[in-house]
């Protein structure tokens, strides 16, 4: 298929509640379907995050990817960098990423690290205020209205929306605000506005490790090689805390290692290597730990990332986390990492202290067709989020994918095919019987070096 892509700018008002005369420019890229088979109901892609720049993160993989090929045969696929991310203008606090990296290099203990992080966000807020930037303009509801402006500008009668992770939060708010603008939605690892997991992610991560261990123990070989994954993780954390690995970017202790495991666990392919990674770390393989942290540590492991946009949205819409996080860490202290329980709340108090109205967290009700995906060992959006998503969606279908993590739509031909069939005929229940016939990928018992080398060659 010819790879025709059209790019350009969408100009939107900074605020729709106050007439300031200020406008923002959002970067848009459209992967075109062939003219002869193109339908009018394009697909709008809503990236996870928040904070991730969509276009430059996604497009390097798009030409050779198989997941979207069938969609693109009949529909344009529309991507845009949400306000404050990617190439969209203005860029929010361009020095913030460097400031936070400097904190990681120089602050070795949790308390001074938190103080320096809070100071970095306070500095960012002051710069924004001095430049006349309103943080109230960087919220999910504004992204919804930006997407609606984009639909009108492109002449799309009604979107098919694919939203993954945080993108599903925007998709659901869009469904609430503009139901007539939506034909159907695919929510891949949903993050609904009424999710309890907004409050803290420690418990969700702990349950993901439990699910990973159960999946491993379905195989005698894996169960024999990794009989107690969580016990080995505790051993690895204790070893690295006692003997941190020095490096110029900052020493690797147990918290840094746990922090790097999370983005590894959130991807299905790399999640299968997590038991082996934990076992090698507990056994003293510092070289492998260094490589893992180099690849998966830090905010850049998901591509171009705006810390300011992410925190503006998370502080406004994520609630306050100190108490539930503190309680969760009493149950799972090995997941404490390098942050204090009150870290997010302290940052939000300095950067964006205004909480969203309670109405924004109400469940979304709709009779539009919605397809919902859930992965077995997803550390970000657990099964509870799926049921909270679908409670009031009268025409929803849930696809639970064994052996998968976050965004399981991409897992294989079966999971992709269900979405393709749904979008072709959203008024008919999709056939999900292929899920029962899937051969699940095995957990590798060795081969970490080759796996990491393949990732390093892509960087």
Strands, helices and their partners?
Blueprint: E1 5-13, E2 23-31, E3 43-46, H1 54-58, H2 69-72, E4 77-80, H3 96-106, H4 110-130, H5 140-154, E5 159-165, H6 166-177, E6 182-190, H7 202-216, H8 220-225, H9 229-242, H10 254-265, H11 268-271, H12 274-282, H13 286-296, H14 307-317, H15 322-331, H16 343-351, E7 370-375, H17 383-390, E8 396-401, H18 413-424, H19 448-458
Helix pairs in contact: 3-4, 4-16, 5-6, 9-10, 9-12, 10-13, 13-19, 14-16
Number of H- or I-type helical stretches? 19
Distance between the termini: 27 Å
In which range does the helix fraction lie? Answer: 40-55%
Structural class: alpha/beta
Using brief descriptors, characterize the structure shown.
459 residues, alpha/beta, 8-stranded mixed sheet, 19 helices
Give a brief outline of the structure.
The chain has 459 residues and is of the alpha/beta class. It has helices spanning 54-58, 69-72, 96-106, 110-130, 140-154, 166-177, 202-216, 220-225, 229-242, 254-265, 268-271, 274-282, 286-296, 307-317, 322-331, 343-351, 383-390, 413-424, 448-458; strands at 5-13, 23-31, 43-46, 77-80, 159-165, 182-190, 370-375, 396-401.
